[in-house]
Amino acid sequence: MKIWSTIKKDIYSLYVHIPFCEHICFYCDFAKVIKPKNDESINAYLDKVDNELSTYNNKFNSLKTIYIGGGTPSCLSNDQTTKLLEIINKHVDIKNIIEYSIELNPESVTLEKLKIYKNYGINRLSIGVQTFDNNLLQKIGRQHNNKKALEAIELARKAEFNNISIDLMYNLFNQTIDNIDVDLDYIKKIKPEHISWYSLIMKENSIWGKLKYNKPENDELFDEYVNKGLVKLGYKRYEISNYSKKEIYNSVHNLSYWKSDLFVGVGYGASGFEKIKDKYYLTQNVGNVSKYEKTFEIVEENDLYFQIIMMGLRMIKGIDISDGLNKQAYLHFKNQINKNIELGLLDLKDNYLFCTSRGFDVLNEILLTFL
After folding, report:
1. What's residue 346's pLDDT?
2. What is the mean pLDDT of residues 249-264?
3. Does 25 have pLDDT greater than 70?
4. For 62, which DSSP code?
5. Helical spans, DSSP H, in the chain
6. Which domains occur in the chain, in start order?
């Protein structure tokens, strides 16, 4: 038996996918469909999620985080939201959950829904703002404006949510430094606890991807500007695209991905990383909203170690190489790691392997040396 297969790993995180949207954004390639007008289709989907969760029996005993993503989970009605959260409660002991998140679009946030979230133990909101510039919002296919985004955040505060994350994007078409300054000014006013600020990625299955659009080439310029701007506002970068006011607001769920912890994904299009009988598998729910099934792809030893390096180097703190599989990954790639250390792209200190500031700028090139 291989050493790496004997290292015990529990499931720490659960991802629940709600694929329904009231509109389709031009840049999005996640599994999604226009929300059906009849409740029966949505309820039938929620029943499938219920059945899928039931197949895990007692495997959620060590669960620490839940993330409801989409799609647009906030487009569900009050009754549908209640049904979803009742289903999750049936399979998970919420008392043991450290972080319970749900994604919201500003235009579908209501005080009633926020109160439902709160009553069922959700303690973190991820609001898809994308930009506070109304012209850019229209160009990327969003249905809200900056006024609606501010109202959603105000409602969340009124419902006593004190862990709010907003999603923003840079490197959009026709976006300028002045637009970034506008976003930074809004951040200064609303003071979210957490910010995920991503560069536009032209995904193949998005509307823009299918139209063969080429993305703007301002990545490095905007990345540096965004980082400096957020640091001035008191945010600390803890991952390539993520910032928080304090360490307690770092996304525990996303950190579990970057640390290559085991997680379960349920719902159409959801993916997971599971251990079954001493073997590691990537799972993917394929099919459609009406009928999907979970596929399992075994992760070979070399691929597992590469995943640990690829995901772990996204974190500013890096990879704890004294910990279980991380140690095996370090030993497996020790030659490549030492070469990148000699080049000043990686560093090793107090058992943590991490990118230098120069290494972050060329992370993709670093990862190529491990292939």
Report:
1. 98
2. 97
3. no
4. T
5. 39-54, 78-91, 111-119, 134-139, 146-158, 177-190, 207-210, 219-232, 252-258, 301-312, 324-332, 334-342, 357-361, 363-368
6. 9-257 (3.20.20.70), 301-371 (1.10.10.920)
Residue 61 DSSP label: T
CB 162 within 8 A of CB 153: no
Kindly give the pairing relationship between strand 352-355 and strand 346-349: antiparallel
Q: Say how many C-beta atoms besides its own lie within 10 A of residue 138's C-beta.
A: 11
Q: Are 134 and 182 in contact (CB under 8 A)?
A: no
**34's tokens:** 């226009």
Taking the C-alpha atoms of residue 330 and residue 354, their distance in angstroms, rounded to an integer, is: 12
Tokens 């899928």 belong to residue = 52
> Tokens standing for 132?
């506070």
What would the DSSP string read from start to end of 235-267? -EEEETTEEESSGGGS-HHHHHHHTT-EEEEES
